[in-house]
Amino acid sequence: MSATTAKTAPALGVPAAPPLPEDLEQLLRRLRLPHIRRHAPEVIATARAQRWEPVEVLKALFGEEVAGRDRAALTTRRTAAGFPTGKTFDAWDPALSSIPAPTQQALRTLEWITRRENLVLCGPSGTGKTFLLEALGQQAVEQGLRVSWFTLEDLGALLRRHRADDTVTKAINRVLRADLIIVDLCRYGDYVEGPDRSVRAAVRSRGVRAPADAGRLGIVTGSRGRRGPCLWGGSVLASRRRVW
Questions:
Q1: What is the DSSP string of 35-104?
Q2: How many whole angstroms separate alpha carbon 80 and alpha carbon 9?
Q3: Lower CB count within 10 Å: N or C terminus of the chain?
Q4: CB atoms within 10 A of CB 162
Q5: 183 contacts: CB under 8 Å, gap ≥ 6
Q6: What is the radius of gyration, based on Cα positions, of the chain?
Q7: CB 206 within 8 A of CB 150
Q8: Strand 216-222 relative to strand 231-234: parallel, antiparallel, unpaired?
Q9: Is 114 exposed, middle or buried (0-12, 13-18, 19+ CB in 10 A)?
Q10: Which residues are paired to 150 by β-bridges?
């Protein structure tokens, strides 16, 4: 019994592209070129109608494969990051933030990630810290970086879950494979005074330091970040620290 595949009717006046020969389709499947296989009928029909050179056909087909793989990789990185809402800079209004515009622009370049520097955003609830953190993370994903998003409670649960079988080190190593690690919705006291020393040690190992009155924090740290001072920002910039 052969499986049938539903086909979309062609637009009025536009002839349907002929399907690929079965042997060619099987070759493309074996070579794992799904995007070429999907677009080849239309590309071949267009090439025949417009009398393309063979090299133009190859360029178009492999261009479709590369573009398709890039889209799939972006989706995979975005899913793996675990962002909470999907907010990006498309919905961000720089004028509504009290962080100076030059600082916002500097953060958006993501150069501080390549310099392996840490970033802390602090301020009262509802001032856009989580929005900015997620937008920065989304931009990092779009630039090909691997990102991991956590709340402090997530990290604590992760460590406690792996203590039972003594695999904490392996769990932390998996987290540190990311190019950028974001810890949102935590207070400085949560890891300075909290009961989970493993979380405190992990945060301190990233070189993160904050004043006692920092309030709620969003911590962004490169997985290979260096010990030392952090970059600071928030609803009101901390005057005791230079942000950039």
A1: HHHHHHHHHHHHHHHHT--HHHHHHHHHHHHHHHHHHHHHHHHHHHHT-SS---GGG--GGG-SS-HHHH
A2: 36
A3: N
A4: 17
A5: 150, 151, 152, 155, 203, 218, 219, 220, 221
A6: 24
A7: no
A8: unpaired
A9: exposed
A10: 183
Give me 30's structure tokens.
């074996």
CA 26, CA 44: separation in Å to the nearest integer? 17
Tens digit of each residue's pLDDT (9 = 90 or more) over 10-68: 444 445 678 888 999 999 999 999 999 999 999 999 999 999 999 999 999 999 999 99
Spatial distance between the Cα atoms of 121 and 235, rounded to a whole number of angstroms? 8
Q: DSSP readout, 4-21?
A: ----PPPPTT-PPPPPPP
Q: Which two tokens stand for residue 59?
A: 């360029």
Angle (nearest 5°) at CA 70 between 64 and 72: 100
Phi and psi at residue 232, in whole multiples of 5°?
Answer: -115, 145
Structure tokens at 231: 């970059």
Kindly tell me if the per-residue pLDDT of 188 is higher than 60: no
As a whole number of angstroms, the distance between CA 58 and CA 61 comes to 5
pTM value? Answer: 0.66
Sign of the CA dihedral 71, 79, 182, 159?
Answer: negative
DSSP β-ladder status, 118-122 and 231-234:
parallel
